[in-house]
Amino acid sequence: PFWLKCLAARSAAMAQRPSVIGKSSGHAGPKYSQLHVHPPPLRAPKVPWKELALSVGLFVIGITFLLTGARLSWTTSLSEAMPVTLLGALCFIPGAYHSFIFAMIFSKVPGYSYDMITTINQ
User: Fold this and answer.
1) What is the 3-state secondary structure of the chain?
2) CA distance linking residue 50 with residue 58, whole number of Å
3) What is each CA distance from 53 to 56, 65, 94, 97, in whole angstroms?
4) How much is the pTM?
5) CA-to-CA distance for 51 and 118, rounded, in angstroms?
6) Among 85, 100, 92, which Cα is nearest to 62's?
7) What CA–CA distance (Å, rounded) separates 59 from 61?
8) Contacts for 109-114 with beta carbons within 8 Å, 24 or more apart?
9) Which residues are CB-neighbours of 94 under 8 A, at least 6 positions away?
10) pLDDT tens digits, residue range 48-91?
11) CB–CB of 99/51 below 8 Å?
12) Is the dihedral of CA 43, 44, 50, 53 positive or negative?
């Protein structure tokens, strides 16, 4: 039948040319070979100094309260040391986390950026 010959000719023609969607011809050319590469930024991003001070402050206050809670638990009772220890843990955990991120950013470890730090809106 005629329609079967047309279908076979069309499928043979479609197999020879690359599809617009999905397949590519394999030859991108020199003009488009570096499309996925991003240029380096013109300026370094601004350091969020308030957030750095807050994270280091939380880290230091957390360590201070944790050490005070440990000293209180050794000298007095655990029930008197528990509030100070919990306050120290609440300050230490976010302070240590954000201070670590800042340390990785300053040492230029790939994968760490200032986008990982939440900023204080004014």
Assistant:
1) CHHHHHHHHHHHHHHHCCCCCCCCCCCCCCCCCCCCCCCCCCCCCCCCHHHHHHHHHHHHHHHHHHHHHHHHHHHCCHHHHHHHHHHHHHHHHHHHHHHHHHHHHHCCCCCCCHHHCCCCCC
2) 12
3) 5, 18, 13, 13
4) 0.65
5) 8
6) 92
7) 6
8) 113/45, 114/45, 114/46, 114/47, 114/48
9) 55, 58
10) 999 999 999 999 999 999 999 999 999 999 999 999 999 999 99
11) no
12) negative
Q: Which amino acid is at 37?
A: V
Amino acid at the residue 78: L
R_g of the chain, CA atoms, integer Å: 30
Question: How many residues would you count in the chain?
Answer: 122
